[in-house]
Specification:
It is built from 13 helices and 14 strands. It has a 9-stranded mixed β-sheet, with helices on both faces. It is globular and about 50 Å long.
Length: about 325
Amino acid sequence: MAAPTLDILGIGNAIVDVLARADDGFLAAHGMTRGAMALIDAGQAEAIYAAMGPGIESSGGSAGNTCAVAAALGARVGFLGKVADDQLGGVFAHDIAAAGVAFPTARLAGGAPTARCLILVSPDGQRTMNTFLGACVTFGEADVDADMVASAAVTYLEGYLFDPPAAQAAFYRAAALAHAAGRKVALSLSDAFCVGRHRAAFRAFVAEQTDILFANESEILSLYETDSFADAMAAARRDVSIAALTRSGAGSVIVAGEQTLEVAAVPATVTDTTGAGDAYAAGFLAALTRGLPLAECGRWGAVAAAEVIGHFGARPQADLKALVGAA
């Protein structure tokens, strides 16, 4: 088997993130569930965007954020996701390339516009997301770059992408290509509401195709339909080789075979929780593809997550390699 030329290949929704601060009154006035991700249509996107306060815009999406953070940690990273041949598509492509991530996917011409995620950040740092998927829903099997998948040590799949039907077929194709090349497949569950919409499909994909699973506490409980974290952890241990389960300020738990490792959270002043799980996965996979022990993978994830939640926006602002002590 040839040595991988990429450490991580992310596949997910290519989204331009728009972040602004908002109080609970704004969320209630627009019928939003605090802390959740909702899919919206073009009209809702325009109305919410018009009502939002001043914010920042950048290339985003869950896997896109993970890829950018992993690149900042020195990993060799690529990303596959669909944008339109429009202004925001150009913004996304330039921004993610500038972060050090290869992005070869052909743009959609003449169809839906580039996706955007309108993120409202509450005073306590909680984020409420409203996503217009736009061009993302056209991502399918034909967009899975077989050579890139075969060249990547880990193909990292974003659970949010399960919403468009064509994407589930793309996930299975990517997993088949990765395993045929002797590589690993990682999956992030992304959101408990997303898991609830597609629980049976997620359960099958986790058990049959996933080597490395990332989930927070609410997501893993939703996946296995239990109120017991211990029971959910046991189920994940049976289904995958490695499960990295995050618990906010309580840190994370890594289960792998008979191992159970508890990793402390890195203290941080919470400014904006957007991208915390994405950054944790980035740190974990950047360390894993270096061959570091699982406890160290968890520490890298915790360091990356702490850096991201300490400021506005999901991309690192400090030198992550220095923070984790990477050579």
